[in-house]
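User: Could you check the structure of this?
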Amino acid sequence: MPVRVESPVFQAYCGIEPPRFANRIELECAKILDYYRIPWDYEPHSFVLDRNDEGRVLSAFTPDFYLPEQDLFIEVTVMKQSLVTRKNRKLRELRRLYPNVRVKLFYRRDIERLAQRYRLRLAS
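Assistant: Sure, the predicted structure tokens are below.
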């Protein structure tokens, strides 16, 4: 369910439709990007990872953010480290199929460090 806790006006957001974040952590990351005026977009592209014989998509990966000035996709995950195996597998497959796509995965520990530094309150 998309987060509708608040609807800040983003200055550095370069998407077309207003973002509908999947969780509070994504919203907080967007606020950090916006605070530093780093142009960003939210989930602008899905990368197909697998198709069946009829061409139907079986697996895809949609990174949370895209930073056009850095040509960098960012995926944020706050799942327990023991549960990120599937996400890591998809990320490896993305890198294999799309070697020119730059993507960075931020884990829970990375987000917790950012939260501490920027005094963010993280949802459990």
